[in-house]
Design brief:
This protein is mainly alpha-helical. It folds into two domains: 153 residues, no CATH class; 235 residues, MetI-like (MetI-like fold), CATH 1.10.3720.10. It is 75% helix and 1% strand. It contains 17 helices and two strands. A two-stranded antiparallel sheet has the order 1-2. α1 packs antiparallel against α2, α12 runs antiparallel to α14 and α14 runs antiparallel to α17.
Length: 460
């Protein structure tokens, strides 16, 4: 029995508890709902919540703490020579033990000590999981009987269920907020470590990006060069190209589908357009590398232009095609949400259909359109695969879309791929890039919210 099966059993027990709680409440009044304080469903929900919530909470805590406890017990059982290893060596030893226990490849031939530790590791995990199953099922069954015994016609089930749901919603909101704070703090702390080694001025205004540490001290940039201007310039260049493709096409298609297309044509063309959003980005990368980039290179050569095999233009155009549904679908929904009374008033004043669209519908729908463009921009800034396959990995400070550039997300992936030491300036640079990108995205959100607030006050 794995964790998912245990959760499924608890959910099944909750469903049974719902039925038993509902039947017990009705049985107390001879089947008359009017004799109950709350509707029968609330009594069933009360029992179901007692079956599921305590057990699931304990299982969540157990799973989050089990790994650390097992590692501590495993280290305590190792020979004294292994316990005196450095932090890095001990981490590598534990990784080998886990890999051996799960049947994966280890970094070296396992010694008898590692073999014994892997067997002990499996025993500890099995014991811990068995204990979790027993405790979880025991709590579920105890919760079932506790909730079931509390059911009677005068029992105030509705306030209690709503209170539980209220607190569950508060906890869910707190988890979302704490997760966001955790992400920001992880970026901030690692970025502080990076900026303690590399000057923020060099990072934000430097023009040379070469985070690879040289092999010899006399080489240029022996400690790496971390000027991030070329990285952000490439990101903005590709994003601008993508938005120049996505915004006009997406907005015009949304206007046509909302204002001009027949219902039958709209029912056919809108799902087809939204299929673009479901295509994996790696497929777009193949399309950009094998079709669009060669086409631009061949077309450029035919008119005397030197177009790189991996260019910002190819990556930006394909990225723009990818995010067209984000603009068109959301803008279409927003335009359809504009009250018909605004259209009727414009027509009554003698305006044509096109004048109504330009002067009434688009201004009224502008907050939603700004939101769709912002979502598309965020999607373009965070795209990785298309840039890797169509624009390249080398940093290049240029405004020429026919040359190869790279982006922040590609560099983050490049810096963190493989077995990396998370204590060097090279890997810490990825967190600094992420922090700056987060600040830029936050500024875009603030600007968009100010635009939305201004026009909402005007048209609401």
């Amino acid at each position: 029995m794995n964790s998912l099966i245990l959760v499924a059993v608890l959910l099944l027990l909750s469903a049974i508890g719902y039925q038993f709680g509902r039947k017990r409440a009705l049985a107390g009044t001879g089947g008359e709902i009017r004799g109950l304080h709350s509707l029968p469903g609330y009594y069933g929900a009360y029992v179901a919540l007692w079956c599921a919530l305590p057990a699931l909470l304990v299982i969540a805590i157990w799973l989050s703490a089990q790994g650390g406890i097992v590692d501590s017990l495993l280290i305590a059982g190792l020979p004294a020579s292994a316990q005196t290893l450095s932090t890095g060596e001990l981490s590598l030893l534990l990784s080998d033990i886990r890999n051996l226990a799960s049947g994966d490849i280890t970094s070296r031939t396992p010694s008898p000590m590692v073999l014994a530790a892997a067997e002990r590791y499996n025993d500890l995990r099995s014991t811990g999981f068995a204990a979790m199953v027993v405790v979880g099922l025991a709590l579920g069954i105890a919760g079932f009987f506790f909730g079931w015994r509390a059911i009677n016609p005068e029992f105030r089930a509705r306030p209690r269920v709503e209170r539980i749901v209220h607190w569950a919603l508060i906890v869910a909101s707190a988890i979302a907020i704490l997760t966001t704070i955790g992400i920001v703090m992880s970026l901030l702390f690692e970025s502080i470590r990076f900026f303690s080694r590399v000057s923020p001025v060099e990072f934000l205004f430097g023009l040379n990006w070469s985070p690879q540490t040289a092999l010899r001290a006399e080489q240029v940039g022996s400690t790496g060069a971390f000027g991030a201007v070329p990285i952000f310039a490439g990101t903005f260049l590709i994003t601008i190209i993508a938005m120049l493709v996505a915004v006009p096409v997406g907005l015009f298609s949304a206007i046509y589908m909302a204002e001009y297309a027949s219902p039958r044509f709209r029912a056919i063309i809108k799902p087809i357009l939204e299929i673009l959003a479901g295509i994996p980005t790696v497929v777009y990368g193949f399309f950009a590398a094998l079709t669009i980039a060669p086409f631009f290179r061949g077309f450029g050569e035919s008119i005397g232009l030197d177009v790189a095999s991996e260019s910002a233009l190819a990556a930006g155009v394909v990225m723009g095609i990818m995010i067209i549904p984000f603009v068109s679908s959301l803008s279409d929904d927003v335009i359809n949400a504009v009250p018909q009374s605004l259209r009727d008033g414009s027509f009554a004043m003698g305006a044509t259909h096109s004048e109504t669209i330009r002067q009434v519908i688009i201004p009224a729908a502008l907050p939603g359109i700004v939101g769709s463009v912002l979502l598309a921009t965020s999607r373009a800034i965070g795209e990785t695969m298309i840039v890797v396959m169509a624009a390249g990995l080398a940093s290049n400070l240029t405004a020429n879309p026919l040359e190869a550039v790279t982006t922040v997300t590609v560099q983050i992936v490049t810096l963190l791929v493989g077995d990396q030491e998370f204590d060097s300036s090279k890997t810490l640079a990825a967190f600094a890039l992420g922090l700056v990108l987060f600040v830029i995205t936050l500024c875009l959100n603030v600007i968009a919210l100010s635009v939305v607030r201004k026009y909402r006050e005007k048209y609401d």
